[in-house]
Design brief:
The protein has 339 residues and is an alpha/beta fold. It is 50% helix and 7% strand. It has a 5-stranded parallel sheet with strand order 2-3-1-4-5. The two termini are 31 Å apart.
């Protein structure tokens, strides 16, 4: 069985510049950082459908589904093609984490890299599983002003669409990330602020490389010329900025694009976390009133309506690229649950 490679795990909330950092890191020969198929987010909630994974038929079915999921990713892992037999033979444990690691390492070995990077921010919810499995990744908590994150999600084909839900998600994701910080050795937890990355990318990247004991390369700043960046930007409108140099002014858009009421709502829900991460609040304490139960019901209904509307107004090419994974998920959910 191949020797383990080093593991880099992003945590936090999507729409925080993680694809930007991913393609920058992917410029280093030592790091393989493919677009994430969100394996843990997708399959941990489905594990009860596979039954006892000590039974070969069950673990084989899980490996087949995970491989199909990777191969259907909107941004392909090309030229790598995930193979169930390899997932099983190279897994160090007969479970989802074993399959996840085996396939990620196989992709990295094809890239002749010593590190594999998982950009799936939703893995912040599964750090207990990751740590319990003894994987010991280096975590990168890349965080961005939650008010700008919310605006970005509102325009994206994924995620919640009401500010109430976006504020909750952003706050909870940061809480999960920061809860992990004192539980792992300091060298395995790196905090990066998105606004600092776009303002001074070179010194930030040099510092990160030094922490990882890797040599900085100038081509990290020319990520937009890479095939990985071009392929990702073509795969969806929400990644189109990856074909451009760093957008140093891409911050505090909420000051002009968010209404006063929406700003007060976000800061009422997540103001404490904004302050904790060093961001300024722009509404008064008297404006920051938490919604009552009836208001939350209205927000829930509006969020559902907006999420349904996205499917009608989103770029059809974006939706088509996501369809193979959606169809696979429907197939998995249609099967009888294995006892």
């Amino acid at each position: 069985m191949p020797e383990p490679l080093k593991y880099l795990q992003f945590i936090g909330t999507q729409r925080s510049g993680t694809n930007l950092l991913r393609v920058m890191l992917n410029q280093l020969p030592a790091i393989s950082a493919p677009h994430p198929p969100h394996i843990l987010k997708t399959f941990v909630p489905l594990l009860n459908r596979y039954g006892n994974l000590a039974i070969s038929d069950n673990i084989n079915r899980l490996a087949e589904d995970v491989c199909d999921w990777i191969n259907a990713n909107p941004v392909p892992w090309s030229p790598y093609i995930a193979q169930p037999a390899q997932a099983i033979s190279e897994s160090r444990s007969p479970d989802l984490l074993g399959i996840f690691v085996a396939l990620s390492e196989a992709k990295a070995r094809l890239d002749q890299a010593q590190w594999w990077c998982c950009k799936s921010m939703e893995s912040v919810a599964y750090t207990d599983l990751i740590e319990a499995a003894g994987l010991k990744p280096v975590y990168i908590h890349l965080y961005r002003d939650g008010r700008d994150v919310a605006l970005s999600f509102m325009k994206a084909v994924v995620g919640p669409k009401h500010l109430y839900h976006l504020a909750q998600k952003w706050r909870e994701d940061q809480e999960q990330a920061l809860r992990l910080r004192p539980l792992v050795p300091e060298p395995r937890f790196i905090s990066l602020r998105y606004e600092d990355l776009i303002a001074t990318p070179e010194p930030i990247l040099k510092s990160l490389c030094a922490t990882l004991q890797l040599d900085f390369r100038p081509e990290m700043l020319n990520y937009f010329e890479s095939s990985e960046s071009k392929n990702t930007s073509k795969a969806g409108k929400m990644w189109e900025n990856l074909q451009k140099p760093v957008l140093s002014g891409n911050k505090q858009k909420f000051l002009s694009e968010m209404s006063r009421d929406d700003l007060a709502l976000f800061e009422a829900i997540a103001g404490g976390m904004l302050t904790r991460l060093g961001y300024e609040l722009f509404t008064s304490k008297s404006e920051r009133i938490l919604p009552d139960i009836e208001q939350i019901k209205i927000f829930d209904a509006e969020n559902k309506r907006r999420m349904l509307e996205v499917g009608k107004t989103a770029d059809q090419a974006d939706l088509e690229r996501r369809r193979p994974q959606e169809e696979l998920l429907k197939k998995i959910l249609s099967r009888p649950i294995i006892d």
